[in-house]
Design brief:
This protein is mainly α. The protein has one domain. It has 15 helices and no strands. Bound molecules: protoporphyrin IX containing FE.
């Protein structure tokens, strides 16, 4: 059974699709450099990366995959509507990333409402695509995008409440609900849905015959897990949250079992597969360590106090590493131009792959070990620089591709 090649709807550079992620990462780079002078700099870096860069990439590329897999007519999701939601997401994100550090709650509320509106427009477009498409195995991907889009406004509501009552005794409970709904719901479900066809593409191999069926079966389990965690956290019933994490983990393992055969058949050698595979390992580490952390914490206060290592695993190990792998495959694909251009662009994205991989992953492991503070700061600095090296690589890749096409 072969993978349906995801044929891009539009080839070449599309500024509104391609550049916002780069811009958010550049702003994150500036914040990283000026960190000692910026209030709430860690929160800011986390949200510039996840709400800014990653959420835009998920918007843009899930639209691309939905189009490639369902081949729906343009009227199901016209380009001006896509542009509108990219703009709404950018404006909403800007309000949130300014509002939280300066404690302007009304700005955070306005930003979260705008972000939620953008996601609902996105969900409506996915629904129209599903209705317009012929039934097929890969509609499951778009169902995951819909489920992820439901999680995002819920997670945003928790974020607004966190910003409103940062010092309340509710904080630990809201923090768990917010991060789980965003990281496992909004990001996780989008990733699972996309990897149905994208995983074999990344590895240049064939799709596992059970993939579509197991992915379909895993969706209610993954969603039930998130719902249990949220209810457990909000209702102050920690065992329920632990049960929800266990349920979510079972769903993830059931789906993940279909990733093994392709990876054994074609172990990753190039940047896209290497970074994506490591990101999935960190995703599993995140799920297991979150479960252990919630199980072992004495109180919600302790749970919140020990959250930073989990955030580092989620943001650096899982989310940004996955973004690196995905963009290293997708940008060359959409640039188009034939095999010679493709090879030239791939070479750019493959630059120093092993070194980047080692710096990122060894740096992150070091930062998570009980090392002196100065060592941890250096390790995290190395990881950040490595992650942000994606920006020049992306820009070089685009320039090389455009030049090669003109030549
Ligand atoms: C929609 C708008 C959002 C708002 C208003 C928001 C707000 C917040 C607030 C107020 C906190 C707690 C800050 C503190 O520690 O004092 C927080 C933490 C966090 N949020 Fe968000 N957030 C948003 C979106 C997201 C998204 C999309 C993600 C991930 C995909 C995310 C992931 C996280 C994580 C991982 C933390 C924990 C950070 C830490 O350990 O300090 N947030 N957020």
């Amino acid at each position: 059974m072969g993978v349906p090649p995801p044929r891009p709807a539009r080839r070449g550079v599309a500024p509104l699709r391609d550049f916002p992620t780069v811009v958010w990462l550049c702003i994150a780079g500036v914040v990283a450099v000026l960190q000692p002078f910026i209030i709430e700099s860690t929160w800011l870096l986390v949200h510039l990366a996840l709400l800014g860069a990653l959420s835009h990439a998920m918007f843009a590329w899930s639209t691309f995959f939905a189009q490639a897999l369902l081949k729906t007519p343009e009227s199901a999701d016209p380009p001006p509507l896509q542009a509108l939601r990219f703009l709404l997401l950018a404006v909403g994100t800007a309000c949130v990333v300014v509002g939280v550090p300066v404690s302007a709650w009304w700005l955070v509320l306005a930003g979260a409402l705008i972000v939620a509106a953008a996601v609902l427009v996105h969900a409506a477009a996915m629904l129209r695509r599903l209705r317009a498409a012929l039934p097929g195995r890969f509609t499951v991907t778009v169902r995951y995008y819909l489920a992820a889009s439901v999680c995002m406004p819920v997670g945003a509501a928790f974020g607004v409440l966190l910003a409103r009552w940062p010092a309340s005794e509710l904080f630990g409970r809201l923090l768990l609900a917010h991060t789980v709904t965003m990281l496992l719901g909004w990001v996780g479900l989008t990733v699972v849905g996309t990897l149905v066809t994208f995983w074999p593409t990344l590895l240049r191999t064939r799709v596992h015959p059970q993939t579509a069926r197991r992915t379909q079966q895993a969706l209610p389990v993954l969603l039930a897990g998130i719902a249990l965690i949220d209810v457990g956290a909000l209702a102050d019933v920690r065992p329920l949250a632990v049960a929800g994490l266990a349920v979510h983990l079972c769903g993830a393992v059931w789906w993940g079992s279909t990733l093994l055969r392709p990876v054994l058949a074609a172990p990753p050698r190039r940047a896209p597969g290497v970074f994506a595979a490591s990101a999935l390992v960190w995703g599993l580490v995140l799920l297991v360590s979150l479960l252990v952390h919630v199980l072992r914490a004495d109180s919600w206060g302790h749970l919140a106090a020990g959250y930073l290592p989990l955030t580092l695993v989620g943001v650096l190990g899982f989310a940004l590493q996955l973004l690196t792998g995905a963009l290293s495959q997708l940008v060359p694909t959409v640039l188009g131009g034939g095999p010679a251009v493709r090879a030239a662009v791939d070479r750019e994205f493959d630059r120093f792959t092993l070194l980047r991989w080692a710096l990122l992953n060894v740096g992150l492991v070091t930062a998570l070990l009980p090392v002196p503070g100065s060592v941890r700061r250096v390790a995290l600095g190395v990881v950040l620089v490595t992650v942000l090296s994606l920006v020049p690589i992306l820009l070089r890749g685009i320039v090389v591709g455009v030049r090669a096409k003109h030549a």
